[in-house]
Amino acid sequence: MVENRPWLTFLRHAILVTGVLLVLFPVWVAFVASTHEGGALMRGVMPLWPGDRLVQNYETILSQGMRQAGGVPVALMMFNSLVMALAIAIGKIAISLISAFAVVYFRFPFRMLCFWIIFITLMLPVEVRILPTFEVVANLGMLNSYAGLSIPLIASATATFLFRQFFLTVPDELTEAARMDGATPFQFFKDILLPLSRTNIAAIFVIMFIYGWNQYLWPLLITTDSSYTTIVMGIQRMINVADTQPQWHLAMGTAMLALAPPVIVVVFMQRLFVKGLVETEK
Amino acid sequence: MHKRVTFAGFAFPLALLAPQLIITLIFFIWPAGQALYQSVLRQDAFGLRTSFVGLQNFQRLFADPLYLSSFQVTIAFSVAVTFSGLAIALLLAVMADRVIKGANGYKTMLILPYAVAPAIAGVLWWFMFNPSIGILAYMARGLGYSWNHHVNGNDALVLVTIAAVWKQISYNFLFFLAGLQAIPKSLMEAAAIDGASPWKRFWSITFPLLSPTTFFLLVVNVVYAFFDTFGVIHATTSGGPGQATNILVYKVYTDGFVGLNLGSSAAQSVILMGIVIALTTIQFRYIERRVQY
Fold first, then answer.
1. What would the CATH number be for the domain defined by B58-292?
2. Is A106 helix (H, G, I), strand (E, B) or coil?
3. % helix / strand / coil in chain B, to the nearest 5?
4. Which of A187, B48, B142, B282 matches a 20 to 30 Å C-alpha distance to A50?
5. Is residue A232 part of a domain?
6. Per-window interface: A 102-161 vs B, CB < 8 A
7. In percent, how much of chain A has pLDDT > 90?
8. SS3 at position B197
9. Per residue in A55-68, pLDDT tens?
């Protein structure tokens, strides 16, 4: 603090509090809506204080879903999302770790070519090559499967790049010592490199879990069977029901359930999350 | 940068790289090649015959008023998302950088929307702006404005912009805060001793020193507005009313999947790939420059 002016401190807090309130307001409104019965929301003014139907509404959502929207239980959607998010996060970490290890610790022809091929994935988000990617997945018979939901998304340039940067900072003396003791490359990787990368792995895991959980376009494309619906894409069917007002109390409850897991991960692993976010972008 | 000490071998490292390379080739490079290839072909109405048409698909696109209007919408949308997102986040970060009490609490609250999927962010605001029951539409009526995003294209565009900005504030905030905390405090103290007001200090010291972060975020936000906002649009307005929120990524999806116009969709994919590659290259150029300091 350079100078001490009480009104300035007050102004700062006032702006921050306003910012926080604006940021949290939509989530609060959704939560309140999810605790009322459907009719209460339709009667003119939206209540701003929770109602008494919290347990009942969430029970309906989790076990039956919304009838207008196909009636897929949201518990199943959450399970699908969880499987997808975990498969993507773990898959990305696993294949990125070994490819970064190969690129950093070996000299072989076409090494940089391989690195650049991986790097290109960063430049081609699903959104820009939707149709041909869909065709590939369809031809491989991976539509409506967990494999189709996760495998095409587990190539990761960001994670590979981060692990590469980290491996480059690991002192050469460790490698020398390991080699002198007759360790194979695999032993070196397993006993030295992996334990050293623990924090980085955790940080990447947080980022990639959120990435996987929040996927929208991909599950939308490759799942037509409603038993593979993920929660983030499932909610769209709930609010786009034909010819009638959606059942907002159920839709908002589903929105709360869709945002809760990643929000909890971010809040409780904040330090790792910030580390992962700031470092992957460098 | 290379390692001095390495292991010998050829087959083993290739085997380690294989999973990543195979996935990249099958799901990234091959489809991108397909998009390039299809962008110069045209299928007849029944999908029976395919013929080579050169750059005609591209020529048609740029002669198509719908595509051009989609381009305009995308540019207006990304400018609005980028500037308001950066401005709000910078304001909050500057405030948070200076407070002592409660700084962590504010930070935790402000990074929360990062975890919310764009589609969910869209749904939350879609609900609050619902013309008949939404609380914000109700407030707008109180102020004498009849809000209806089902009919009014401007309302719809404002709605998706707000939802997209809301989600992106967290990200910008974190990077601005990290950038601010890297600025040496002694500079501020020196300026304060020379009598510079906080306002003056911000514009002549903080803002210029923050420019690398700002530039980085500028690129990231444009990429975000162009590509990651698909969920916001699809879950809420579906590009409507009319063409008011039909941004380029959404149009690729509708033309390809709903309209089944392969040639045109592929040509649009190629244009989008060009845009991403250009933006990413700018980003890397800048990162390289910063590393050399």
1. 1.10.3720.10
2. strand
3. 75, 0, 25
4. B142
5. yes
6. 102-109, 111, 114, 117-118, 120-125, 127-137, 140, 151-152, 154-156, 160
7. 13
8. coil
9. 777 877 777 777 66
